[in-house]
Write a sequence for this structure.
């Protein structure tokens, strides 16, 4: 008989963890509910073990699954906002989901809503039903919905969650807007370089070969590279695609993530964007969880899962351990040597006044402004930098191509004199 790992709360609000044997997940849920306990989560033990011990194949499979089931963030924001509105108007979960199912235009998300409605009708809580769709609903989303269910303020939590998701969407849009232009230019520059090497350089090579003259060393090297690319143009394009896929796969490994994230934190302007974005997300997420009544350690565990950088994830985990051992939040953050003094000072003030969630909200606003300033500065600098890059790459290739002409002209003038 399958075994399921569960987390429940008793009538006094104490949390208990354990395992239970049942024929199915539904049967396990029914057993736990019949005992009079509030079910927080139930998961197949094999799934729980595999989640803790995922290898590269598992990471790739999870990555593909999330890509396949992913829905636009804007769709999720609209869904969350509509749910909050319907709950505040007094509609039940079933009626709200039924209305949203009828109105939903995204076919992929429509299937998800239909499955949510079906699970809720079976007796699942909304958070348990959402937990079956990890590619759509994040652990943070599920945890907040669960806290709203337990506290009885689900509409308020969903309203705050929709604000949070809109902030994340806006931040992503700003960063993508700043990075889309340089990314486009780099791609075009790469393709242009391949065209020059595969078709233009061979034309000059044919001209020079008729003179039987000794070519300059840089031109010889360029022609040799051109010959390799021309003879293997298909393999070159396949190699570029393979390199891109390899980069993605390496990024899924623990070592690869560490290296890539470390490189990102050493690129001057990109470093400021990443740090300000991470600090804003940390403050906003942590403050929202505390405001929703989620315990500090549980909140930090969820914040750990939404941090996008391995080195800051490690810092959050270290701080969580220190908080569990009895240190204050500010002291724990300071001991990691990863969080800026501004955040630590505001956290200390929040602990003293008892308004930690409000102080974290202020800190998030501060880092939002810092992020916007950095992106504005990057946008103003990126265009001249890209012009210089294009000039260097294309200019170098053109100069090397014409070097024999310059040499011939110099030799011709020398012979006349």
């Amino acid at each position: 008989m399958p075994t399921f790992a569960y987390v429940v709360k008793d009538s006094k609000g104490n949390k208990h963890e354990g395992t239970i044997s049942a024929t199915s997940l539904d049967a396990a849920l029914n057993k736990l509910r019949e005992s009079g306990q509030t079910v927080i989560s139930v998961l197949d033990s094999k799934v729980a073990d595999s989640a803790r011990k995922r290898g590269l194949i598992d990471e790739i499979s999870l990555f593909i699954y999330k890509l396949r089931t992913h829905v636009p963030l804007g769709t999720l924001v609209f869904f969350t906002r509509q749910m909050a509105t319907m709950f505040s108007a007094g509609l039940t979960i079933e009626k709200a989901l039924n209305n949203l199912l009828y109105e939903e235009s995204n076919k992929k998300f429509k299937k998800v809503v239909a499955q949510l409605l079906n699970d809720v009708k079976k007796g699942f809580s909304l958070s348990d039903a959402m937990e079956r769709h990890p590619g759509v609903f994040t652990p943070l989303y599920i945890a907040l919905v669960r806290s709203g269910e337990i506290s009885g303020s689900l509409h308020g939590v969903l309203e705050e969650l929709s604000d949070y998701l809109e902030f994340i969407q806006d931040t992503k849009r700003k960063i993508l807007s700043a990075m889309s232009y340089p990314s486009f230019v780099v791609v075009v520059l790469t393709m242009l370089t391949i065209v020059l090497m595969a078709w233009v350089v061979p034309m000059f090579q044919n001209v020079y070969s008729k003179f039987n003259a000794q070519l300059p060393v840089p031109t010889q090297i360029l022609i040799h590279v051109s010959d390799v690319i021309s003879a293997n143009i298909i393999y070159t394009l396949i190699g570029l695609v393979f390199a891109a896929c390899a980069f993605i796969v390496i990024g899924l490994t623990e070592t690869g993530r560490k290296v890539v994230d470390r490189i990102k934190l050493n690129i001057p302007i990109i470093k400021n964007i990443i740090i300000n974005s991470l600090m804003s997300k940390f403050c906003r997420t942590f403050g929202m969880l505390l405001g929703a009544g989620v315990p500090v350690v549980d909140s930090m565990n969820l914040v750990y899962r939404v941090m996008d950088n391995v080195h800051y994830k490690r810092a959050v985990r270290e701080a969580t351990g220190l908080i569990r051992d009895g240190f204050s939040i500010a002291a724990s953050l300071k001991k990691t040597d990863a969080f800026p003094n501004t955040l630590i000072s505001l956290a200390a003030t929040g602990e003293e006044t008892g308004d930690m969630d409000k102080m974290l909200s202020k800190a998030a606003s501060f880092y939002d402004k810092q992020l916007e300033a950095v992106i504005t500065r990057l946008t103003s600098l990126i265009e001249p930098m890209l012009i210089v890059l294009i000039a260097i790459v294309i200019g170098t290739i053109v100069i090397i191509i014409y070097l024999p002409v310059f040499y011939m002209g110099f030799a011709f003038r020398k012979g006349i004199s």
Remarks:
- The beta strands are 3-9, 15-21, 38-44.
- The radius of gyration is 29 Å.
- The longest helix spans residues 356-416.
- Residues 47-53 have pLDDT under 50 and may be disordered.
